[in-house]
C-alpha cells in the first residue's frame, strides 16, 4: 500500500461507518495499514468481526463497534468506549448506506400499460427507510463523533454520496434523493465548521464492481445485464471502478495536503457524470 510510508496517519484515530461493507471495508483496511487506529462500525456483527481480524492480521489496530448509525444514544455509548480504548477520533468516514427495492421503481419510464412498480406505487415508508439510512445515517454519526474534533480544533470528515446525487439515476428515487441531501449537508456543515479546523468533504463514487453490484449487474451466465450495459455505455472509460481506486481520494482528503479543502465533492466515476451524448 503506497500510503503506509506516510507517518502523518500513524496513531490517528478514525471511525468508519459501514465498515462491514465493500467500500467502507476497503477504506477501513487501508487506514489500518497506514497506521490509523480504526473503529470498525457496522450493524452486522459478523462482518465487523471479520473486518477487525483482517486489519489485525496485517499488523493494524482496530476496535469492533456493532451499532446502528441511526441510533444516536448507542453511538454516544460507543464513543465513550472508543475514547477509553483509543482516544478521541480525528477522522470520520461516513460510508454506511445502501438502497432498497422498497424505495425504487421497477421501470425507468411511467407507462399506463403497467410494466411494474412506478413512482405512484411506492410507499412513503419504503422510501423513508432508504432516505433515513443514507441521510440521517450520515448526519447522526457526524453529530456524535465531530464533538471531540471541535473540542480539539482538528478533524476531517468524509461523507459518501454518489453520482446519483449529481445526475439522478432512473429507478432509484429514494437513494438518489438521499445522496443529494448528503451533498447539501456536506457543504452546509463545511461552512458551519470552517473556523474550527474541522474539514468536511464528500466522495461521489460511480459504479464500483462490489460483490453486491455483481449480483445486480451480472446474470447467472456471467454476462452483463441490460442495466449493466447501459452503465458501461454511459461511462467514457468503458469499465466499472474498483474499490482500491477510491483510496487515493480518501487519504488526500484526510491529509494536511488537503488542509484548504472543505465543502468539496470528489467524483470517482470514470467520467459518468461528465458524459451527456
Tell me about this structure:
- It is a single chain.
- This protein has a seven-stranded parallel β-sheet, sandwiched between helices.
- 42% of the residues lie in helices and 14% in strands.
- It is built from nine helices and seven strands.
- By secondary structure, it is of the alpha/beta class.
- It folds into two domains: 227 residues, Rossmann fold, CATH 3.40.50; 31 residues, no CATH class.
Helix content: 40-55%
Major sheet attributes = 7 strands, parallel
Give the radius of gyration.
Answer: 19 Å
From the N-terminal CA to the C-terminal CA, the straight-line distance is: 37 Å
If helices are DSSP runs of H or I spanning 4 or more residues, what is the number of helices? Answer: 9
Taken together, the total number of domains comes to 2
Summarize the structure.
With 277 residues, the chain is of the alpha/beta class.
Topology at a glance:
Blueprint: E1 13-17, H1 22-33, E2 37-42, H2 45-57, E3 61-66, H3 72-85, E4 91-94, H4 124-152, E5 155-160, H5 163-166, H6 173-192, E6 198-205, H7 211-217, H8 226-233, H9 247-254, E7 265-268
Parallel strand pairs: 1-2, 1-4, 2-3, 4-5, 5-6, 6-7
Helix pairs in contact: 1-2, 3-4, 4-6
